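hey all, quick one before standup. I had two proteins in the batch that finished overnight and I want to keep them in one place so we stop losing track of which output belongs to which input. First protein below, input sequence then structure tokens straight from the run.
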Amino acid sequence: RRERQRFVDKNGRCNVQHGNLGGESSRYLSDLFTTLVDLKWRWNLLIFLMTYTVAWLVMASMWWGIAYLRGDLHQKHDDTYSPCVANVYNFPSAFLFFIETEATIGYGHRYITERCPEGIVLFLFQSLLGSVVDAFLIGCMFIKMSQPKKRAETLMFSRAAVISQRDGRLCLMFRVGNLRNSHMVSAQIRCKLIKSRQTPEGEFLPLDQCELDVGFGTGADQLFLVSPLTICHEINSESPFFCLSQRSLRSEQFEIVVILEGIVETTGMTCQARTSYTEDEVLWGHRFLPVMSLENGFFRVDYSQFHATFEVPTPPYSVKE
């Protein structure tokens, strides 16, 4: 088995890293919401905690600053004095007043008085700022938790692709399946052939992408994915595998990227699952074992045979030959 660098891993992760962005990295800040959603969970949680901690400390310091400038901190034993915020004597009490106000707890021991215009302005600013921060961070966390990436893990692809005859035509085939009972609405599948080539003008294309026809004209690419399906690409004169034979398959270097898209029935969000097959994962002269069986009033899928193949008589020649 030859191991080489893949463009797309079997789990669908793309092995592409962007570097030397220079001044273009500022574009990430212009789309800050998407940048936060794309971060890993540990960074999201760190930003979530740090933002709230800093905002709480800054706002509590502003309340303490108002009490300090008005002299409320030195009048705690004077019952005739009307402070800006009642019962705020130090920074911990100012912090507790901010938390009670922000969280709308309202224990009743600390409260703002009507003789403090700067406190009223700060109270309005705190309410607006708190709403903006809550909407931004909580919205970011909600979107990240509701992303359909985990749904793609219950969509299966066969470990290998096979080449054999179907209906008298040589075909490249692989299998897809859905492990959940909930359906993928409007499921569609596409295939890309990643292969290096050189143009007649001498230009070398290291990762040239070519579309593989898996039933665009007939509608076979629109899947009703309630049971495992075998996706078929007919190798004909228009296929990039027109000259591929069993012998030349051993010396070829290519990668077939499979993209399955659909709408998650329970959430209505678009989900995408990906995988790839390299030339050493394409089995010539094999066919997939059946996984469907009819039992008492229903069809049963045996996923233990999902990846299993068996050999069938297949000419070792290419379609061109």
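OK second protein, same deal, sequence then tokens:
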Amino acid sequence: VHQSKLDFFCKLGYGKQDICKVLESLGEDALEDDVLKELIRIGSKPQALESQAQPFPLKLVARGSCSTTSGLKRLGEDDGDSSGYLRPIVIDGSNVAMSHGNKEVFSCWGIQLAVDWFRERGHTYIKVFVPLWRKEPPRQDSPIADQHILEELEKQSILVYTPSRKVKGKRVVCYDDRYIVKVAYEKDGVIVSNDHYRDLQNENPEWKWFIEQRLLMYSFVSNRFMPPDDPLGRHGPTLNSFLSKKPQKVLPEPTWQPCPYGKKCTYGNKCKFYHTERPHQAQLSVADELRAKTKVPLNLGKDKCSRLP
């Protein structure tokens, strides 16, 4: 009887020590209801209830982010640049390869140099667009160097082939420039090419502004990929600001700059610089200053000149 009651209350989740203690105090002939009341009275709880009573540790999650790691993985690489402050990069593969091959050879090594340059800067979203027919064996009229690089970049999900096919022996090629501009525009990124895409600028006014403001030109100097330090000209942003989502702050120039000539300046009131020797005086010409010091009226000299025969 003792063992059967012990097994019964153990199945309910109560501990053996509490059950034995109650059975010793009430006796083996005690009813199950009495044993249960005594267990409740002494504060014993089933293990299932104890586990529910203990709250799980809360994990704080940033607002707008996924609460599980699987949710984070679903975002994928197309979510943009994971670095947060660097713009996505879209490379015109044909333009870069032909530029590195001196417009004679499709040099895949030039594409690799450009990709490595942006990787070293920290860009994680890098896409290279190349026509699909570049996977075919090279011919005399279209030589290709280091073609294996295209396969390696494709495995890394960096290189994307634009569609092409053959119809009755003729190759039908989709316009790869349209892919390049469209993806860069949707990702708010940067186009790496020496092409101006004038036909696409005339086609879409929004693309026209985007190409003018987000086109990054480049040069190859001894197998070195070199974009300019001022992509939009001397008065435009620096290269770091151009490739960043948040442009770097430029310190404003001081309103007053000291005159480099100092007291030897002869520009007078035409001088645009600040003179420390006359902080509270109006900027007068040298002749007017001399007249003011000698207390000669300004019109005196003019009257003498008018009286001369």
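Flagging for whoever picks this up: The chain has three domains: 1-42, 83-243, 254-285. The longest strand covers residues 126-131.
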